[in-house]
Amino acid sequence: MKQGGVLAGVDGCKAGWIVVHRTDGAEPSVSVFPSFQALLDALPDATIAVDMPIGLPDFSRRGGRGPEALVRPLLGARQSSVFAIPSRAALYADTSDFTTVEAWYAAHRQASQVALATSDPPRGVSIQAFGIFAKIREIDALLIARPDLRRRIFESHPEVAFCRLNGGAAMTLPKKIKGAVNPAGMEERKALLCRHGYEKFFLDQPPPRGAATDDFLDAAAMMLIAGRIASGEARPSPDPPMADRFGIRVAIWA
């Protein structure tokens, strides 16, 4: 891993955000931060690639914001991992901290109602997407309040990253099967990461508390994309990127 500067690959996890990071060509480290702001405080100059949608639509159309439809065909059987994000209004329909399961499901229903009214064809909100709404809003609020951050925080996607790192060929095996980690799929990805400079012992270590093994590998892939972004090698989909109404870039980088 030759590139200098501070690089960070980020994925959401149960405890907040898992980050694989390194400084000035040193060996990588892995950390978990409870909030994205805490991550920024700890790594104030990092180029960051994060597996989270950045730049939100006012109205959702078939296939997603634009980047999703461009990258799905690259992924073959893995394309279902790229899901469409509903409108900003749906994402902000209920911003409460949920104390009960009933409240969580009620908020999901409310978000779906708003999504149906702000999409064509009308489309509700999947449980999978709703589960990361709070994290999407966390980054969105920071990028609205601090436009300077837009120069160093970039959206990526693990399966798109693995595909790009694999010379344009999608991974052949899934990371998970019916919600459980697929060891063969994990080993396929570890082997690819090792070809790009990681040591196997680093990838084989247990993830920090509050993060899962697949979160860890995704963050490791994101760090390689951060390096590609810093060196000017990464490319956005679409190229050039679109922008939302706040001027935030809308593109998946890899």
From TrEMBL:
Cross-referenced Pfam families: DUF429
Domain of life according to the entry: Bacteria
Protein name in UniProt: DUF429 domain-containing protein
Organism whose genome encodes this protein: Mesorhizobium captivum
Highest classification ranks of the organism: Bacteria, Pseudomonadati, Pseudomonadota, Alphaproteobacteria, Hyphomicrobiales
